[in-house]
From TrEMBL:
<feature type="transmembrane region" description="Helical">
    <location>
        <begin position="136"/>
        <end position="155"/>
    </location>
</feature>
<dbReference type="GO" id="GO:0042284">
    <property type="term" value="F:sphingolipid delta-4 desaturase activity"/>
</dbReference>
<feature type="transmembrane region" description="Helical">
    <location>
        <begin position="100"/>
        <end position="124"/>
    </location>
</feature>
<keyword id="KW-0472">Membrane</keyword>
<keyword id="KW-0812">Transmembrane</keyword>
<dbReference type="InterPro" id="IPR005804">
    <property type="entry name" value="FA_desaturase_dom"/>
</dbReference>
<keyword id="KW-1133">Transmembrane helix</keyword>
<protein>
    <recommendedName>
        <fullName>Sphingolipid delta4-desaturase N-terminal domain-containing protein</fullName>
    </recommendedName>
</protein>
<feature type="transmembrane region" description="Helical">
    <location>
        <begin position="183"/>
        <end position="205"/>
    </location>
</feature>
<dbReference type="InterPro" id="IPR013866">
    <property type="entry name" value="Sphingolipid_d4-desaturase_N"/>
</dbReference>
<feature type="compositionally biased region" description="Low complexity">
    <location>
        <begin position="1"/>
        <end position="10"/>
    </location>
</feature>
<dbReference type="GO" id="GO:0016020">
    <property type="term" value="C:membrane"/>
</dbReference>
<feature type="domain" description="Sphingolipid delta4-desaturase N-terminal">
    <location>
        <begin position="38"/>
        <end position="76"/>
    </location>
</feature>
<dbReference type="Pfam" id="PF00487">
    <property type="entry name" value="FA_desaturase"/>
</dbReference>
<feature type="transmembrane region" description="Helical">
    <location>
        <begin position="78"/>
        <end position="94"/>
    </location>
</feature>
<feature type="region of interest" description="Disordered">
    <location>
        <begin position="1"/>
        <end position="31"/>
    </location>
</feature>
<dbReference type="Pfam" id="PF08557">
    <property type="entry name" value="Lipid_DES"/>
</dbReference>
Length: 300
């Protein structure tokens, strides 16, 4: 496998200069590669429309029964309550355990990271209004699901993520696309290993580097609620309990089996020797399906 990974990007203008990159997101059915693009350009540039809407229409036309699966899932709220309770319980039980010890690390990696990755994806579902029919109930419940993650992010995640859906692959709008700075430092095997290890930090910080969101009351509520929860946890269970939650969140977005969905969703791999393609201009797919047992833990 080549160390090079490319990104399919929708160009707002055919004459706009692309940024170099090493990782990325967005699935496009066809990329039109401009002849004047330099070899160092790590993007697949396309001039097709954003595919989510047209693909949705095509799927519903071919399989109208799929609409019966749309809408809120009643079990989501119960699963979130259970996972939040599990994480708070683990944090309390580890309150007297040394942070730099195998029991602490293994619990954070095996239990905590799996649980917090589950909550990451629960917040994704809730952001699409799939826990309750009321939008406000979903916003408030996302803040609750955010508690064991330790850092407030649910209120900011939703608008960035919905823009990602509406402007899939559009440079300057889709914050799942990497920045030019990432291209400089991550375009190597070691760089990609670094990215995979610390990808939760890229995922959290990149959107703010691309564009700023206006702060709303739900943002303030998210921050105040999370800080109050963290304060109470430290007061009654100690700093190690909060350290467990933070470590769980970091490991959930690091080298962890449940974090594999980030790679399945956002990487383009170079074609392998001997692989066949009907269209040499079309990039390899940027999303890959997984049908294994981890889907039980990841709302898939």
């Amino acid at each position: 496998m080549s160390s090079s990974v490319s990104t399919t990007t929708v160009a707002p203008s055919r004459h706009r200069r692309p940024q170099d990159s090493a990782t990325g997101s967005g699935e496009l059915k066809r990329a039109t590669l401009a002849a004047d693009r330099p070899d160092s350009d790590r993007f697949f540039w396309a001039y097709t429309e954003e595919p989510h809407r047209t693909r949705r229409q095509a799927i519903i036309k071919a399989h109208p029964e799929v609409t019966k699966l749309c809408g809120p899932e009643p079990l989501t709220k119960y699963l979130v309550f259970a996972v939040v309770t599990l994480q708070i319980g683990c944090a309390y039980l580890l309150r007297n355990t040394a942070v730099f010890s195998w029991p602490f690390f293994l619990t954070a990696y095996i239990v905590g990271a799996t649980a917090n990755q589950n909550l990451f994806l629960a917040i994704h579902e809730i952001s699409h209004n799939l826990a309750f029919r009321s939008p406000l109930a979903n916003r408030l419940f996302a803040v609750f699901a955010n508690l064991p993650i330790g850092i407030p992010y649910s209120a900011s995640f939703r608008p960035y993520h919905l823009t990602h859906h509406k402007s899939l692959g559009v440079d300057g709008l889709d914050t799942d696309l990497p920045t030019a700075l990432e291209a400089i430092f991550l375009d190597s095997i070691l760089g990609k290993a670094f990215f995979a290890t610390f990808q939760i930090l890229f995922y959290a910080l990149r959107p703010m580097m691309v564009y700023q969101l206006p702060l709303t009351r739900i943002h303030a509520f998210n921050v105040v609620t999370q800080l109050a929860f963290d304060y109470l946890l430290v007061q009654y269970a100690g700093g190690k309990a909060l350290a467990y939650l933070i470590m769980s969140s970091f490991l959930a977005g690091s080298l962890h089996p449940c974090a594999g969905h980030f790679i399945a969703e956002h990487y383009v791999f170079d074609p392998q020797p001997g692989s066949s393609t009907k269209d040499p201009l079309a990039p390899p797919p940027e999303t890959y399906s997984y049908y294994g047992p981890l889907n039980i833990l990841t709302y898939n």
